[in-house]
Write a structure and sequence with these properties.
mainly alpha, 2% strand
Length: 764
């Protein structure tokens, strides 16, 4: 037991006053850290009773704290049960594992193979925003002091020095390129990458050339031992590591800006890289990996536990990074701003790794020059003039406000952020683009009035509104991406999809009409072709949005069937149109709060949405399915016409836009097939389900009221018609429960477009 005097003195610094959180003055006795409580016999003090008694006397807002412990300290603290607190604690098993580490251990090829594969898992997990202390630094070979070791020489520990260390060093040199990109501050801590408080070295004494030579010698050594277990697998790892390291060097932002041909060479290295996770993963070596390595880095803040990516998934991630780097490489070869816009949209949809996204932003603007070897101002001018024939007077008046250059580059930077941040920033930027549109309209009016005195410059029938038309087009693309990006992030519940795609349909309709009008201010074959190409994408998306809207409405109809009507359905999703009108209106306003404040396009009001939903409610499921098929046929016709107008001058861009539509088209087709098969299944053949949405809601209200009356033993006198209505409603409920057991779902399947939902139907 502790001495009572020591316990009292240790607790004397505790304060029970909720209002004494001021920071003591520096250097004062009060500001000094108190001496820790030390017992006379070194035993832990059980203060449970004391704390319980003190807590029972606390008023609301009171805090037990040391005098020096401030509110700032409280906000920065980690909860006692937070798993991060256990990251550096060694259990008995951990201590035993750590004790097995021996850098001089004689390794076999199969043991070196196992270490190399685990190191690859660490590297790919690090690329996925994990901390170094959770991944690469857990490998003792990676953090070992290699000074004096005969690396690359046929020593007594040949496998370690000729094979494993060359792979480890090459991994570190490659990570050095990645870390250099991380350090450009294009990314955001916690969200993108765990920078930590340590400054990694990544084998700073070894250059890329040194690592390449070490890998070459490792391959030669392994060829002599080709027939031994693990040798072939290690050769594949060495070859892949050489190609990956060379590609990282050639695809660095500085190298691509300095020499465009280096990017092509880097692409060639990526295409030679072949990675496959072997069936034989080698022999595990104890002590090589220390998951609790962060205890050796006292300055590091606690981090959340993170599991390593599994082997096959690790290979897939590396292959995906290679494809993303190919897209970045293509930026140095873009021929127009139109193509640049498409490339950024495509890369954004792929949601690349933090390294690729940072490289993308660095490549976009470097040393006051951007891609296409132009200054930022020249790039904006080119973007406008590619779409509209704006006179110099209009551009001069508009460029007097330099914000457009920053906002235009931010349009691209937004797409290069991680998906959640990109969506948040896009919604915030919409207001800026809306304000710019107003400024551009005034500049267009002034320019048109000067060019054509005596004509009504404010009349859209006379004034093409050159620059403001382009601004509106860019704003609409940002709006469409932000709206549909919520599907990928699972922001919307399944029952909200009809609202989202109904709204998206209105947006695409406004965008298509706007592009038609832009032809008025875009004389010339080149501009006309560009507007037609962009129009193809927008019109095809409009028709596919219509089809998805109808399908999602059908699915909502089925979700209405599954809505909770008694306790065993309490875990089912709430359906928007079963909420009160005020709740629906509030939810609608919340979803579109960013859009409702824009001057254009015209915001679809809640009442307007309700009118559209009621109109669809009058249609039966087969009718909705037929309308969706018609919309899909229209999209196919639009895409077919675009291919017919494909020529050598616009082939690459037409193919690019076609690629953008192909995934969307496949998603909508899959949804139509799923719904058609569900309709043909035995579940939906029940005549009770073949009713309109309005009838479904009436049935639900009918049996809910009847069940409530029966439960209260208050059965009113019912007419024959009322009894038949209740009977039909309960038969409808039985059919609904049979449908609910099919577990209809909405998901985004791999390989599909991530911003458009796939409706998962059993057996479809």
């Amino acid at each position: 037991m502790a001495d009572s005097e020591q316990l009292s003195s240790g607790l004397s610094g505790l304060s029970l006053d909720a209002n004494t959180a001021e920071v003591p003055e520096a250097g004062s006795a009060e500001g000094q850290l108190p001496e820790p409580i030390v017992t006379s016999d070194g035993e832990w003090i059980d203060i449970t009773t004391l704390v319980d008694r003190a807590a029972s006397e606390l008023a609301s807002g009171a805090l037990i704290k040391q005098t020096h412990f401030t509110l700032f300290d409280a906000m920065m603290s980690v909860e006692v049960m937070d798993p991060r607190l256990d990251m550096g604690i060694l259990t008995a098993d951990d201590a035993l594992e750590v004790s097995q580490w021996d850098i001089d251990r004689q390794l076999t090829l199969r043991e070196a193979l196992w270490v190399a594969l685990q190191l690859l898992r660490c590297e790919m997990t690090w690329h996925g925003s994990a901390s170094l202390l959770q991944t690469l630094y857990t490998c003792n070979y990676f953090t070992a002091n290699v000074d004096g070791l005969p690396i690359g020489q046929d020593s007594s520990n040949a496998v370690r020095d000729m094979v494993l260390f060359p792979i480890v060093i090459a991994t570190g040199v490659g990570c050095r390129y990645v870390w250099s990109e991380f350090s450009r501050y294009n990314l955001f801590g916690e969200e993108d990458v765990q920078m930590g408080t340590i400054e990694p070295q990544f084998f700073a004494d070894f250059s890329q050339h040194d690592a390449d030579i070490l890998l070459y010698e490792a391959r030669m050594y392994l060829e002599f031992r080709m027939n031994e277990p693990g040798a072939r697998e290690l050769i594949e790892i060495v070859d892949s590591r050489r190609h990956w390291l060379r590609a990282l060097g050639l695809l660095s932002a500085e190298r691509m800006i300095e020499d465009a041909s280096a990017a092509a060479d880097g692409l060639a290295e990526l295409r030679q890289m072949h990675v496959a996770w072997p069936d034989d993963e080698g022999t595990p070596v104890r002590g090589v990996f220390d998951p609790k390595c962060m205890r050796r880095y006292a300055a590091a803040a606690p981090i959340k536990p993170r599991e390593l990516i599994e082997g096959p998934a690790c290979v897939q991630e590396l292959e995906r990074m290679a494809k993303d780097l190919e897209l970045v490489e293509s930026l140095v070869r873009v021929e127009s701003v139109e193509h640049l816009v498409y490339m950024f949209q495509k890369i954004h949809i792929r949601a690349p790794s933090p390294f690729v996204r940072s490289l993308l932003m660095t490549t976009l603007a470097n040393n006051e020059h951007v891609v296409l070897a132009e200054s930022p101002e020249a790039l904006v001018r080119r973007a406008v003039l590619e779409m509209v024939a704006a006179p110099p007077r209009a551009l001069a008046g508009w460029f007097a406000n330099g914000d457009i250059i920053r906002v235009f580059l931010d349009w691209f930077r937004t797409l290069a952020q991680n998906p959640p941040r990109a969506r948040r920033v896009a919604y915030k930027c919409l207001g800026t683009w809306d304000a710019l549109q107003g400024e551009a309209e005034q500049a267009d009016i002034d320019a048109f009035g000067a060019e054509h005195p005596g004509r009504d410059a404010a009349d859209p029938a006379q004034n093409p509104f050159w620059v403001s038309s382009w601004v509106y087009h860019m704003k609409l693309m940002l709006l469409e991406g932000a709206l549909l990006g919520g599907v990928r992030l699972h922001v919307y519940a399944a029952y909200e999809l009809p609202i989202i795609f109904g709204y998206a349909t209105q947006g695409f309709e406004a965008h298509a009409a706007h592009l038609d009008r832009m032809h008025m201010g875009a004389p010339g074959a080149a501009r006309t072709q560009r507007l037609q190409r962009v129009g193809v994408l927008v019109r095809a998306q409009r028709e596919m949005a219509v089809a998805t809207w109808l399908i999602s409405h059908m699915f909502e109809r089925l979700l209405v069937f599954r809505a909770p009507w008694h306790s065993k359905h309490s875990d089912a999703a709430t359906v928007l149109r079963l909420e009160s009108t005020s709740a629906q209106r509030a939810r609608y306003a919340l979803r579109f709060r960013h859009v409702s404040m824009l001057g254009s396009p015209t915001h679809l009001s809640f009442d307007g949405w309700c009118a559209s939903a009621e109109h669809l409610d009058e249609c039966l499921l087969p009718e909705l399915l037929g309308h969706a098929q018609n919309a899909l046929s229209a999209a196919r016709t639009i895409l077919g016409d675009a291919k017919d107008h494909r020529d050598s001058g616009n082939a690459s861009v037409v193919d690019a836009w076609a690629d953008a539509c192909r995934l969307l088209y496949a998603v909508v087709v899959a949804n139509l097939v799923a719904m058609a098969r569900l309709q043909q299944s035995g579940v939906l053949r029940a005549k009770e389900l073949m009713v309109s949405g309005a009838a479904a809601l009436e049935y639900r209200q009918c049996f809910l009221q009847a069940d409530a009356d029966d439960a209260a033993n208050d059965r009113p006198v019912r007419s024959k018609k009322q009894r038949k209505d209740i009977e039909r409603a309960r038969k409808w409920r039985d059919a609904v429960e049979a449908l609910a057991r099919n577990k209809l779902n909405v998901t985004c399947v791999q390989g599909a477009h991530p911003d458009w939902p796939v409706f998962s139907v059993p057996g479809a």
